[in-house]
Structures are given as structure tokens and as C-alpha cells.
Amino acid sequence: MISYDEALRLILTETDGILPGTEEIILQDALNRIIAEDVISDINMPPFDNSAMDGYAIRFTEIKSREITGEISAGNFSNISVDETNAVLIMTGSKIPEGADTVAAVEDVIVSGNEIFISSDSKIKKGSNIRPLGSDLKLGETCVYNNKVITPAVIAVLAGCGRAKVRVYNRLKAAILATGDELIPITEKPDGDKIRATNIFALKSAISASGHITVDCGFMKDDRNLIKDKINGLLQSDADMLITTGGVSVGKYDFMKELFEESGVERVFWRANIKPGKPFYFGRHRKGNKTKLVFGLPGNPVSTLVNFHVYIEPALNAIFRQKERLRIPASLTGRIKKSDGKRHFCRGVLSNGINGPEVFPLSSQSSGNYYELGNANCLIIVPENILNPKEGEILECILI
Asked: Domain 4-20+170-319: what homologous superfamily?
């Protein structure tokens, strides 16, 4: 059994061979996609010297009083010359008139009739409150770099550069299959030894939240031949990765790892020294020049989502050159029972305390208790060499 760090290293090594294609889409559809090009600005930003606030455009001198000789509002430029003796009322964003080199803010002047007087306590100086042409971005400079996630702010930049269309990376497609005789549709009420097939919905949501596409393959009974046929079909499909839940431990019906390999999957590793989610399978399936990643997750609901956050999400980030999810050091506000040498990922609630971030471990850490997982906002990382961490200890947390 390998360590978590080694397991993650092996997964990330395999992502080097995954090269998503690209497509050009309209800007309105680009939110949360990942840009696949460097975008060059076709204009200076701002495109002209403009006022940073409402005030009066002047030529800076020691003269305190000036005659108001005009008005300029945004989009309604008037070419009024400015010298040492006059001022022009100007609105935020308006183009600076010829001769002006400073804007005196409204609160820095006293208006009397058709004159302004610069307040004696004003701190304006030459160049105050003017945003020069190209001070934000110059013509020909890169305004958005390849591999950046397109947020609303990035969309504003792209729109400012006149990009009605943008090239983005294709989203990956993940096929999701659950297995187990105990599973029933979520629309049915469990009876006897049955449980609802929640893992499918959890994984679909997690993949979608990461910006990718899922293929819901439903759930299947523990029938070896039927499952093998299904796996063979999914491995030949256009899915970029296959994610299964259930059947990867050591029980009589835990035959998924054997079925993967009978179907042409090369095992990279099985089991890592973590809790929850130790019986995790990772392999690769090659067909021509295409590599499909195969993740076999345990069936316990908490283990499924923990495995997603600590293995699959980092893989997705690596493929698209995204940063690893932020880990936040926090002070433990309770105790965690840990008497083994595994790396634990415990459910907790992270909050801002008086002295900085603090994290409260939830009472139940059972791998079947997805109710408590729904109450958590982080996973508390307890390293292999730490036993029974006590209140006040600093531990890293992964936001979920």
C-alpha cells in the first residue's frame, strides 16, 4: 500500500498525457470555461486621458480661483481649451480637454457663481485624478493569458478588447457508474437492506462544479458479466475518464479491479494509506493516442466524495494547468481521535476566529455518514505522523 503523496504523484504524472481539444464559443457562453489562447488588447485602456471622478479640469498652478467656461460629460466631449485662468466642469470617465493636466475633485473646490476657488486645505497636485491613456493596458499587450478561468471580470476584459468570440478548452467528459446489489433509485424509499444510489448524484455535481460534463451510467447489480460488458462499452466510448463507485475492496463481490484489467485497463495503483477511501483504484486505458483515466472509488458515500476531492479534482486541475485548491492552516477547536499511521481527511467546519482561522471537527467521521459531510465546509488534513491532535493544534484544511 502506497502513501497518499505517492498516489497523488502517480495520478498527476498520468495527466501529462491528457491534452484537451479547443473550440471557439461566443463570449456569453464562456463563463467558467478555461481560455485556450493569449488574448492581445486591440486598444489602449483607457483609450484616452479621462477623469477619475467628478470635478473640474484645470491646468495646475498656484492660482486659487478660476472661471468656469464649460462642461464635459462622459460620451459628450467638447473641445474646450483650458489654461491657468479657467476650469471645465467634468464628470467621471469624461475625456480630459486640451490644456488640462489635473482634475480638482468637487469636494476640493468652492463654487461661487461662475467661479471656483481651490480650497486652502486641498491636497491636489499636478496630475491628480486623471487616468492616462493606456495606463491600465496598452495596445498590443496581453490582457488575458492562456489557461485562465473565465470569470465575470475576465469577460469584462474580453468585451473591452472587442472579443465577441473566444477560444476555450473542451470540457472533459466523465462517465459515472455505480455498482452494488443494495442500490435503488433515489425516488424509492429504502426497505430492508437497500440504500439510495446517492453517489451518482454527488459525483455528477462535483464534476459539473469543476466545469466538466458527466455521462450518467446509472447503477448496476453485482453481476460480473453484465458489469464487464458495461465497462468494455464505456472504455470504447468518447468519455475522457471513467469513474465507478463500489466493488474495489476485498470482499467476495469486489471484482471491479479485476474487471478493469480484463478489459484492458493498466493498473497504476490500488489502495493508498488514507482514511476514508483507502480501497481506491487508479488505472489508465490506452487506445491509439488517447489515454482514458479510470478511477475506481469505494461505495461508501463519504469515501466517494473524499476520493474525488483529494484525487480526481487535483487531476482535473493539473490537466488544465489550474492551481491546487487552497489549503488553509487553522487552529483545531476540538479533538480528533486518530490512532493509526494513515493520513486522515476529517470533516470539519472552518470559520474566522478572533485570532485567525479555526476549524471544528464534526462529531461523526463515519465513511457512511453523508449527512455530516453535508454539514462540513472543509476536510481537515491529519498527517500520518500525527496522532490524536488536540485543541489548539494547527492543521491544514481543504475547502469543499
From this structure: MoaB/Mog-like domain (3.40.980.10)
